[in-house]
């Protein structure tokens, strides 16, 4: 136990002047609480402002999205791949402006919201090609592309060949390396979850 206490550091360090000011406000609130409720509320408001000014840092796109924002946006994308998803709506989900969201998203995911959405659609389409007998046109519509040609254009760009050629190769066994990246359970969403 004594070894642990040597490694413990305070999570928050207060400036001495702020501590004195906070103590003064707390004493004022305690004095006024029973006699002057309005003054007590004003003191609490000032105390809140003191802590807010000291510890509420303005968000920075340089840090990316917070964990809850990332999870919320990512889950929405996953649950709605077949729909039209606008960046402005995702920004609203995260409670951010469009421009701030786009910058923070890029830092968090390593790609733009649009590129991320397309990649997720392609991964889902690839999983569906492996797991179902649906036509490529049905798969394209099912994952949010306008049509099979739209799917094919993006699929070729990311995987180096057409969906039809990739599907044929996968039916013969593991596709050649030029079709990499081969889907793994970690990067391919389950078709049944869709």
UniProtKB/TrEMBL annotation:
Keywords: DNA-binding, Transcription, Transcription regulation. One of its GO terms (molecular function) is sequence-specific DNA binding. The keyword DNA-binding applies. SMART domains: HTH_ARAC. It comes from the Bacteria. Residues 71-169 form the HTH araC/xylS-type domain. Gene3D superfamilies: Homeodomain-like. Residues 183-194 have a biased composition (Polar residues). The keyword Transport does not apply. Residues 175-194 are annotated as: Disordered. PANTHER family: ARAC SUBFAMILY (PTHR46796:SF6), HTH-TYPE TRANSCRIPTIONAL ACTIVATOR RHAS-RELATED (PTHR46796). This is AraC-like DNA-binding protein.
């Amino acid at each position: 136990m004594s070894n642990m206490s040597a490694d413990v550091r305070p999570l928050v360090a207060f400036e001495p002047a702020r501590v004195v000011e906070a103590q003064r406000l707390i004493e004022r609130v305690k004095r006024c609480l029973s006699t002057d409720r309005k003054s007590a509320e004003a003191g609490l408001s000032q105390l809140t402002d003191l802590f807010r000014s000291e510890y509420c840092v303005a968000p920075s796109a340089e840090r990316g999205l917070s964990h809850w924002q990332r999870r919320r946006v990512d889950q929405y994308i996953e649950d709605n791949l077949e729909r039209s998803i606008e960046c402005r709506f995702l920004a609203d989900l995260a409670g951010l402006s469009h421009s701030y969201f786009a910058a923070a998203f890029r830092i968090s995911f390593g790609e733009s919201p649009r590129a991320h959405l397309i990649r997720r659609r392609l991964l889902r389409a690839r999983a569906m090609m492996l797991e179902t007998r649906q036509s490529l046109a049905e798969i394209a519509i099912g994952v949010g592309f306008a049509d099979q040609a739209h799917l094919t254009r993006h699929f070729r760009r990311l995987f180096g060949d057409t969906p039809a050629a990739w599907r044929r190769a996968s039916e013969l066994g593991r596709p050649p390396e030029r079709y990499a990246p081969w889907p793994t359970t970690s990067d391919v969403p389950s078709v049944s979850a869709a």
